[in-house]
């Protein structure tokens, strides 16, 4: 299957065909003549096979060759009919070799493909189980392409714009039987990912069904019969018709009756028709008439005994929608009936559209009224002028400084202000978008629903959405790239046609034009940018999601449900004691949900087989089942009572009660009695669902003698549960890997999204999936903790104080400004230094007292101890970097200018050029002119820097005078002396910390400033000190809890405290949070760092976290995966007591060397296995495939013995 060039296969373009069956595939004649099936000759088929042999390879239906008993082949000559007739006459005649053989065999005829043969159809990429399904072949003589029914498009993710598909013809009776009974389209109606349908009618069929079932559709006898018999060509029994809805003046049937007739005739004759109540996709308000009784509106679908009484049937009932009409038919009657219903509906809707209704889209369907258009223009005009206000609101700046503020925000190293601006502008554009939509759709349209065909398409679910209508009739809206507005160039423009830092929404990518009247060139360019991003994203994510799925499949390929209901790996390791914790198959348990209990009760006659029920009861260990359930029920009530008494009882009494009632937990019912052998051995959750519904009886359907008794209801669900148990041999590991890998192709590659107020980002999509499943990283990109709050008084105020306490404080947050002054100190020929005076001025205490956990004294102490050391280390690294960069620019072939001996003796800390200045000066050495110019430049620079030094001395003197004047108003002499002594001690300790520090001063009164003076050697010390100080100030952390950077107050969707908020931290430290058990609910504390959870709470908590995290990643994109798959993956990753990834490192622990070699680094695994002398027991699927053996999964996990 992996390759294209295999025998007994065909590949061609696919075309749609609404007239063939859903389970059929139209095959061109050219394929039917090339594909052959080996059919053994016997008394029953010899006549057909002789005719095929006589026809030969070129005449259909014919045969390609005949295989003798010994395996030799006779190829049929298309030009020699006499020879073919001779071979045909000898089909039942045994050959001489066969007569002497003890093994009795017969001849085999490789006949042409015929209608009714099973074909395996496949479309790449084969991402999940429905990507390969078995169809019944229907040979179409006049066709050149494969003909596929519309309903199967979603299974294969196929469309008809040139897609190609592969068809494979099984070559043995077991393969043909498996294709018909396991891989058949009728049995693949639900997808294993979440148990929802994939097959369903689309596009024109949805339109036809919606138009047919609307009110006011009447047909006379001829049209009624024509539609019915056109939809039911191959029922095989007498067609049951309905009486007309109107008898006088002439018999007329409604469209609902036409559909009801088709539905009733598709149901098996010995089964009652379905009774269903649900909602249509078209809401009731779309019709503009509000009925007094909502059940009588067209938005409510009511089907009683197979007759559509009320409502419109649209995508919600015959599309790929869960719990619709076709899905209920599949659950009640099986896949054959559901496929028959889909086929009949498709033919009915096609005939109706062709013969009676027709459908088209005109310009009137997208026009808006003059009043709505005037309102739209008014909103657009107001929106264009609001740019300045939005920017001012986002940045908080004055009007006069708007351009400068935008420039500073754009050129700043941190992108925070631009993010705030984008968020504010997006709020504004969203509001404009909504206002225009309200003005134009649907009230402002020229034609209203249902006469508006575009609205009919959207509302019924046939094609398109409200976004398409909006872009056609209203506006395109805000163009987004990676979740942000269109980025600015270095010039401050988004496009050259806009002014620098233009604040209008248009300049940021807001397109107020529409497709109806056209868009401007700039808007078209923005639109193309978004389109290009989508294309690139699709191309990139394909490979990443593909590799993710491959890693999962290679690790989970051996996981299988065994006959003892455990899930084991191919080496016998137990991964789960019961699949999915309840043993139920995802595809069989969809109706075992509380929301579907009414459907089961109303259709109990079709489901409850009394004979089967009595047989199951006779084989059930009733007494053991009853005692097991009683023990579990007793333990639950005792544990509930213990929890209630916990707060009031004494410790010793509670200990005795705990030992007596709670600690002795009985085994679950499903572990005592097998669910597949005992009726009623259901999981505790299912038992609770059943008993809650029986006791509450919310729909008043459980009544004795009328619908269904409570006992029969229990028996019905017990029987349904027994049928839903997962079959032994089911390759649940592969299904779990496919169910995670296939939806990951739908996720975009946006690595981050901004949580809360846009200040903290969270990893999402495929990068997060790789973190959890493929890497199992101990250092994830964005670790967070969720701290739910306790229900105590003033909890929000306490939580805010805790937020301040655990948030880290960077030095840059408390700095008001930094001033760096560079001076050159030259004293004679021996002493040449460069002084950097760095002055730090801090914010006043009141500016950060409530928002930061810092104080002036702590800040100053940190500046004297921690920050100074970090700053000097950074300067040293910078100087080393400059030195290494300049040394690379010297060339060995050039002569160096002689250096004065005195300067050589005084060599700098880091040897560089004498000037330590521009890097261009080193390149000119060796050239006399360049050397003179260099010396002259150096001399001028020394003069200038000397003047700077003189100016600094003057300024220092002035500062000294200022300090003296300030001392005049100082405290009394004794206190002044103590302060002076303390200051001297602090200054001396700073000066002694490093020889580069030659001077230090600080504010003794308010502690709001401090000043370093750093002395470096003149040679090689020219650097941008401002940048170094800025970088270190942004990096230096003044206060922090280990591993926690920040904390935010965010909305809590599961709030129990009453304030509706919780704390979310950037970083993880559970041990530190345990100190605040009076504020944080310790029972609900959570983190997305799975390693931290495993190390703190244990491996079982980590297993639950894996399930929750993967489900959360999918939930962002609206994807739902059944928890059984996630539980299996989590159990596999943690079953040995540690959290291991699905990658090459974890593959080293695999018991099968061949499976290791088929994953990655084949030679490394081969060497390791050879040197270690490891044996392969040939139990894993990969190892058996390597040797061409049948994989021990599915039907290959057992052998059948034919009793003579």
Oligomer: single chain
**In percent, how much strand structure appears in the residues?**
5-15%
Overall mean pLDDT stands at 83
CATH structural class of the domain at 9-178: Mainly Beta
Q: State the strand order across the main sheet.
A: 2-8-7-10-1-9
- Number-wise, the strands total 32
> CATH architecture of the domain at 9-178, please?
Beta Barrel
Subcellular location: Nucleus, Nucleolus
Protein name: DNA-directed RNA polymerase I subunit RPA1
Subunit structure: Component of the RNA polymerase I (Pol I) complex consisting of at least 13 subunits.
Pfam family, one: RNA_pol_Rpb1_5
Brief descriptors of the model:
Enzyme I, Chain A, domain 2; 1204 residues; Topoisomerase I, Chain A, domain 4; nucleus; RNA_pol_asu; four-stranded antiparallel beta sheet; six-stranded mixed beta sheet; DNA binding; alpha+beta; 32 strands; globular; DNA-directed RNA polymerase activity; Barwin-like endoglucanases
What does this structure look like?
Among the domains are: about 170 residues, Beta Barrel (Barwin-like endoglucanases), CATH 2.40.40.20; about 150 residues, Enzyme I, Chain A, domain 2 (Orthogonal Bundle); about 140 residues, RNA polymerase Rpb1 funnel domain (Topoisomerase I, Chain A, domain 4), CATH 1.10.132; about 130 residues, Alpha-Beta Plaits. It contains 45 helices and 32 strands. It has a 6-stranded mixed sheet. A 4-stranded antiparallel sheet has the order 3-6-4-5. Helix 7 packs across helix 12 and helix 40 packs across helix 41. The longest helix has about 40 residues.
